[in-house]
Amino acid sequence: MRAVVLVEGERHELQEVPTLEPAPGELRIRVEAAGICGTDLSIMHGHFPPGRGRPLILGHEFAGTVDAVGDGVDGFAPGDRVAADPNVYCGECEWCRRGAYNLCEQWAAVGITLPGALAEYLCLPARLAVRLPETLSMTAGALIEPLSCAIHAFQYADVARDASTVIFGGGMMGLTCLALANQLGHQVTVVEIHEARRRKALDMGAARVVESAAELHQPFDYVMEATGVPAVVQEAFSWIRTRGTYLQLGLPPADTEITIRPLDINNRELRIVGSFSLADAYPASADMIGSVAPALEQLVTHRFGLDQFDEALAAMARPDALKVHLEPHTHH
Ligand SMILES: [Zn+2]
Ligand SMILES: [Zn+2]
Questions:
Q1: Ligand 2 centroid vs 104 CA: distance in angstroms?
Q2: 60-85: pLDDT as tens digits
Q3: CA 103 to ligand 2 centroid distance, Å
Q4: Centre of ligand 2 from the C-alpha of residue 329, in Å
Q5: Mind listing the domains of the chain with CATH numbers?
Q6: What is the ipTM of this complex?
Q7: Alpha-carbon gap, residue 45 to 64, rounded angstroms
Q8: Ligand nearest to the CA of 61
């Protein structure tokens, strides 16, 4: 089969590699749609995960069709339309028992430490897969993973209904959070420097979009930082309302430091929450995807074939790009 293989450092190539046979308990999935995200760039640049090797087939956001099943697999058959949680967790360590699969001591993940979805086929444990309704597109199926990251963040931060929210950054994460906040009846303001993204935010139901924080007036119940840009992180902190919650979603450079006044955290009873990956939110996301698919599908701005990974990376760098998908079996 053909696969995008990270060979050494950032060097990658389209290679012909052996198609794996599913091990006992595994499915082999014919990949129909696979997203690329900031995590992939972070892996390419060697920042994440630390100390992991090459060669690696990237791709952890995907949907496809079951192509073969390993021994002992119940409930799936060739031809089933599926998507799957890319995180392979032990289910037994302290963190797994608390539902924090993202922090599993034996954590591994398809496309991050194991062969991923930027390939014609991939194998993974059937217990991680969910069946997709006939009415759901493969594009939407591949968005269950990024949606689940936002759902986990909302769950972990205990986001309530009917509140005021500001989202810094109208990229994929920011706009996915917008869709969730809308469902909770929030009045959402999006701060985004690029006009194309501001328009998208308005299309998706943002109450207000602004180019910079200078245009904001009042603090917010929820401040969601989805850029990871150090200056934006610093700015975002000053917009938390009394009893408000700050949510760090963007990934700042590891050495970023900002200034905060701890007494302000006491006096105004602020909550500061971080979230990483999706913990146990994948099934909830699979349940919800149908209701938000019309909004989220329009965030897939570019589609390419497997042989166009370089074009896909170039597209990702443009401000009009939100989610870029590769479709290994579709001619582009
Ligand atoms: Zn991702
Ligand atoms: Zn574990």
A1: 4
A2: 999 999 999 999 999 999 999 999 99
A3: 7
A4: 34
A5: 2-148+278-326 (3.90.180.10), 158-274 (3.40.50.720)
A6: 0.95
A7: 28
A8: 1
